[in-house]
Design a protein that fits this description.
An eight-stranded mixed sheet has the order 1-4-5-6-7-8-9-10. A two-stranded antiparallel sheet has the order 2-3. Helix 2 packs parallel to helix 4. With about 290 residues, it is of the alpha/beta class. The longest helix is centred in the first third of the chain and has 14 residues. Helices cover about 40% and strands about 15% of the residues.
Length: about 290
């Protein structure tokens, strides 16, 4: 039996893969915009319990090739602890090719280069990472706990270890007051890294997160869909990544879904946003079908 602790979250790309909960909650859990784990106390699951659940999952899904380690930032676990889990997974799923995990900049910075390389060698090869913004003022206001240079260094460490990185940026997180700084500085940050995947989300706040989020702003005005699309356009125009980057804006929060690869599809993506701005509401996903 699998004893999942709810709420349970996983990236959209992991929908058809094994979800193995190795921690409960998030070890940081202070980001003001996020309410995902606010109802949970952070805990590390005992290895024996994890082993038992791996046995159960392997019996039911022996052909599984991909595993996601939940909850919020399982990379916070001691390297020796993670290695025990990874080795047990490799033994239990003979076709295993990928293990992925949510991670914070803090998690990556706390690991040495050799530790990350060792984890990669044991199939932990995809990191899901929330950048949110590259603007220093906003990083403080959303209580991210790190600055832009720390985000860059942490992503560079993952790349150096040979890990793929799937990163997210939140459109609208600076509201009307910081829209220019948010987009400019976030593009500058991305251009200094070598991320594998990049996605944009559209800011959405649960009711229980609004008070904690708004208290860090003198006057926060949410962007309209048109203003969000303008942010998207400016962001795409400023992106000049060092490497090939697979770009998506297909999260459930997005008013406009985009898909392409940088640099090849850059102009096409910009043109699609411009076209949507010209068409207006009819080109957008209705609000009733969106969610964060």
């Amino acid at each position: 039996m699998i004893n999942y602790s709810y709420p349970l979250y996983r990236p959209p790309a992991e929908a058809n893969n094994i979800i193995l909960q190795v921690t409960h909650g998030c070890s940081y859990n202070h980001c003001s915009f996020c309410s995902m784990y606010k109802s949970k106390k952070f805990e590390i699951k005992a290895l024996e319990e994890v082993y038992q659940e791996i046995d159960t999952l392997a019996q039911s899904y022996p052909q599984a090739k991909k595993v996601f380690l939940a909850d919020g930032d399982a990379l916070c676990l001691e390297t020796s602890h993670l290695l025990e889990i990874l080795k047990y997974l490799k033994k239990s799923f003979t076709k295993l090719s990928r293990v992925s995990v949510y991670a914070t900049a803090q998690n990556l910075l706390e690991k040495s280069d050799s530790e990350l390389a060792l984890l990669k060698d044991n199939l932990l090869n995809l990191i899901y990472f929330g950048i949110e913004t590259g603007n220093e003022v906003l990083l403080k206001k959303i209580t991210k706990g790190v600055n832009a240079q720390q985000i860059i260094r942490s992503l560079q460490k993952a790349t150096k270890a040979g890990m793929k990185t799937s990163t997210t940026v939140i459109l609208g997180i600076g509201g009307v007051a910081y829209t220019k700084e948010h987009i400019k500085d976030t593009a500058v940050l991305i251009n200094q890294t070598e991320v594998t995947y990049l996605s944009t989300l559209q800011l959405g706040l649960d009711e229980d997160a609004k008070r904690g989020f708004f208290k860090h702003f003198d006057d926060f005005n949410m962007l309209t869909d048109t203003q969000v699309l303008d942010e998207q356009r400016r962001f795409l125009e400023l992106l000049e990544p060092k490497n090939k980057v697979i770009f998506r804006s297909n999260h459930a929060s997005n008013a406009l879904h985009l898909a392409g690869t940088f640099p090849k599809d850059k102009q096409r993506l910009i043109n699609e946003v411009r076209q949507a701005l010209e068409i207006g509401e009819a080109a957008l996903v209705p609000e009733m079908f969106r969610g964060f």
